[in-house]
Amino acid sequence: MFKGIVLTIIAVWFTLIVNAQTASTGMEEETNIYEKIFDAPLHLSGEQQMTFTALYQQKPILVALIFTRCSGICSPFLLELKDNLQQTDDKSFNILVISFDPRDNLEDMNNMAQKFGLENDPQWIFAVTDSIEQLNQSIGFYPIWDNETGQFDHDALLVGVNIEGYITKKLIGIRKKHDLDLLISSVNNVFSPTYRLPNKNSLFSCFNYDPKTGKNTPGLGLLFIALPAVLTVLMLVSISYFVRNKSQRMDRPYSE
Amino acid sequence: MESIKLRKITSVWILAVFVLFIVSIVLGILMRLNQGEIIKQNSVTFYTNMTTHGLTMIGIWFVAGMAAINYLMERYVKTSYTANMIALVLTVIGVLMFWATTFIGKFHAGWTFLYPLPFKVMWATWATPLFLVSLTVLGLGWLIWSISLMTQILRKYSISQAFAWQHFKKNPSVETPPFILISMITLVGVIACLLAAVVLIVLFFAEFFSNGSFVNDALLMKNLTYFFGHTIANEMLYLGLAVIYELFSEVSGTPKWKTTWYVAVAWNCTLIFILTAFFHHLYMDFVQPEGFQIIGQLASYLASLPAAGVTVFSVLIAVYRTKIKWSLTNLLFFIGVAGWVIGGLGAVIDATISNNVVLHNTLWVPAHFHTYNAMGNVLFSIAFFYWFSTQFTENNIKSEKLTMATLTILLIGGIGFLLAFYVGGADSVPRRYSTYPAEFTSAAPLAVIGAIFATIYLIAILIFFFNISKRCLKVLSSPS
Ligand code: HEM
Questions:
Q1: Whole-prediction pTM
Q2: CB contact, 8 Å: B208 with chain A?
Q3: Which domains does chain A have, with CATH numbers?
């Protein structure tokens, strides 16, 4: 009987453990890093056909994933990217703007290029592909179609790919020039630090970043580093107090 | 005097440590052979072996030190057999669980299981939680054991006596034996780092069960990981030193070592420095505050100086122009101290920030820690094992020649094995590569050389094993 209860508890506990989610947030930019991007066939403006491999072998590429009917983040995302890149004169890479919406065709992409005044910039390439599923999967990009809005729910994602086709860094969201510089360094195989995105679920951070001031302040996590030493001292003092008190009590002559 | 039960349980510890040591050496040799392209293991097998080898080695040499000081502490205070037994049972269960996660579940996040690696499941899904449970079981057993030993010391000595603070003044009224001082300092460090492991495991489990509603801070997790990992790897050496302070003079037939003011000061400083030296593992973490990096470098220098300085001085004084009864025990102690100092120098070179930029994560790292382990701490413990085994059975290593031959094999094997690591490290060969890229032309040949010498080292260990275990088995079969 007792054995049965213990075994059941162990079994239930292990099932819970195994089924517990290991999903952690704040790591979205770290997925698929150093994996090869899918070698999708690309249809480029001017009726050109090319594979992904042929493209990245020329120069490293920054891949921007958008769709032309987007009423949300895609336009501001491209605009910010364009603005940031205009501030550098770096031609060591190309930018591939690719649609993840199967409804988009080359004409849509050409229109978009024109809208941003990029149609004649050789560094910017606008393209569509028939293998968007595989491409998305190799990048770890999962847009979700929303029937109600007729829009994709998706991240603004910029992916760095070096000339060997490896994903070196990803940036999610509209980011400042500093982050873009890190991405450009990474596609040129220059070390660029990587860190988890600030996350409200991270309760015990060593530092708390304030986006308004751009400053870090010490966080609760730093206390945790000291905790083991503090607990040890407390334990030492209390054990000593307890055992010495007890032995004094035992040494005391019987007075009644 | 110690009880028969204590003798028996110490024998079991010795046998278990030896068996696990031999298996782990074989895993180490397989790794070197794979890196040398003599055998072909897939990378999962390599990293599984690396994880098993690393954590098993750390675990067994920690418990070997603990078993030794538990045994010798009985000379001064009564120790708890129950705590010793609980530690043994939980160690066996913990090791079996851990080996199941690696050999069956293919868990291979390295012995440091650095966050968030255990959550990047590239093995059986049950392996990550079981790995964390196995650490909990091991940590619990060792924590109970350490707290129990510390409590027994505190029953007889006040805090200030246990830390030998009265020796800071002239003519202290009470003498704290060096063995008690070093054991106390080490146990406090061990308890602190095991508590760091507790905090770490709790945070791992919290994230694991939170369905993403709680995530950990990578910087905090790395600090805690090395608070635990670096500190336990160092403290286990100090357990060995406590044994040396107790036994070296005894087996050499020289006057017993005493606690002097400088011994007391040195070991008290060591306690503080050793608990902060782990910051040197985070030099490459750009978010770590600069102050911690500086503390890391200073503490790394200062942690090694007092203990090493005083111990080396004591050993040299003990042997210089003194008639010594040399035996396998004190020879192993002597060679071990040399290995410890050489490895320590290698560590200090690496812990210097300007050098670390070049040596970080190269084979220099396994070079230095294998020096003070394989040719340092392991020898301290084997010396104790040998001494222990000869206490109750006749000394049947009859031939002095066999002793010298075994020591020579050990030295040749050990030095060759370590040199292959050092040369690789100086040549910037990275550590933890299952196979080396063609650019590292020296890496594979050095790995083959390392494997050959490691096999020679293994032969010496096997000779010790047969000799000592035979006598431990006799202790076990003797009537209670
Ligand atoms: C002759 C005996 C030994 C051999 C052949 C051996 C071999 C190896 C090898 C090949 C590695 C991987 C090196 C790399 O990073 O490329 C390694 C790592 C390691 N060894 Fe040993 N070793 C031996 C003894 C020891 C001892 C006595 C200890 C005691 C503590 C030890 C602890 C470790 C640890 C902690 C690691 C790191 C594992 C990791 O990176 O996760 N080894 N050893």
A1: 0.80
A2: yes
A3: 1-27+203-256 (no CATH), 31-194 (3.40.30.10)
